[in-house]
Structures are given as structure tokens and as C-alpha cells.
Design goal:
Strand content: 25-35%
Shape: globular
Largest sheet: 3 strands, antiparallel
Order of helices and strands: HHHEEEEEEEE
Strand order of the largest sheet: 1-8-4
Distance between the termini: 24 Å
Length: about 170
């Protein structure tokens, strides 16, 4: 997936949107059609990959597709357990789970690159965070590598560069 910074040079140093500061010579991010088309294709792939067809009158298609994909995955696992192909133990043996609590971290431009204490087997893993403190909302987390995660967050009270600690869990496949 393309970040806005790979399409326009008016993004910030993280390749993300900026409101700009015209008085200081910083341009706001240009909203280029190429980026919107990338997002549209990504969302279309979720809907089609979940077995749906695009419907301009349905604003629930991505959610329904994700539910269908997750349901299908859980049904496959359940069927493997029922048929004896797999057990809970063999499935759990294939997972890598890292759970922990971060020290206080400083977010810059609502972003943070977080280093995991132990690297996952690959960059194909999921990270969930909670207990992020009052007024802070984690918007997204994207693995950069097996040992680092880009975390985007927003502080509801408008605090610049919030400093917080958070609980997290990472789940990946061996």
C-alpha cells in the first residue's frame, strides 16, 4: 500500500499528511488522486476477497467482508480440530505471542516507532494495544519489520507529542 509520502513531496518526514504552516513555508499535503485510488483499491480488495460484490449503496461492505474473512478462518480451524487434523495444542504451537508493557514513549507527529523486546518470526503479525492512558486513541499499528511497529495515535485533548506507556500483545505465526 502506498503512503501519501510516496505520491507527493508535500507529506511530512514520516510520509504522512500535514496541515502545513504557510507562514513558515511548509505546504499542506496535496491530496492527489493516486493516493485516493490506492485506498479505494485496498478497500475493494477487502470486499472482493471477503466474497462480496461492490455496491455503491452499501456502506457496510468492508466490515461485512472482514467478518466473513475472520469467520471463514475460524471455521477452517474449527473443522481441523473436529476432523482431528489439528488440535488446540497444535494450533497454539504454531503461534508466537509476545505480551508486555512499554516504558513511557514519546509520540512525535502522532507517530511512534516501537521496538519489540523480542522479534517476531516475520513482519506478518498483528499487534493490539490498550491501557493507552486518558484521552489517547490508538488509530493504527503497522509492522515495519519482525521487531518494530509503527504506531499512530491521537490525543483527544490536543496535547502535542504525548508521552504514554501502554500494554500490548503481538500474535504471529511461526
Amino acid at each position: 500500500m502506498q503512503k501519501i509520502g510516496s505520491i507527493t513531496n508535500t507529506a511530512d518526514s514520516n510520509g504522512e499528511f500535514t496541515n502545513g504552516k504557510v507562514a513558515t513555508g511548509v505546504s499542506p499535503t496535496i491530496l492527489d488522486a493516486a493516493w485516493f485510488n490506492t485506498i479505494q483499491r485496498e478497500l475493494e480488495n477487502i470486499v472482493v476477497g471477503g466474497g462480496g460484490t461492490l455496491d455503491p449503496l452499501n456502506d457496510m461492505q468492508v466490515l461485512l467482508a472482514l467478518k466473513a474473512i475472520f469467520l471463514q478462518s475460524s471455521q477452517v480451524i474449527t473443522q481441523q480440530i473436529i476432523s482431528g487434523v489439528a488440535t488446540i495444542t497444535t494450533i497454539m504451537d504454531k503461534l508466537v505471542i509476545i505480551e508486555g508493557y512499554s516504558s513511557v514513549q514519546t509520540f512525535v507527529d502522532n507517530a511512534l516507532v516501537f521496538m519489540l523486546p523480542v522479534a517476531m518470526p516475520s513482519s506478518n503479525f498483528t499487534m493490539l494495544a490498550n491501557d493507552t492512558g486518558p484521552g489517547l486513541f490508538v488509530l493504527s499499528m503497522s509492522p515495519i519489520s519482525a521487531g518494530t511497529v509503527q504506531i499512530y495515535a491521537k490525543n483527544s485533548v490536543g496535547e502535542a507529542n504525548p508521552q504514554i506507556g501502554f500494554k500490548y500483545i503481538c500474535i504471529g505465526v511461526k
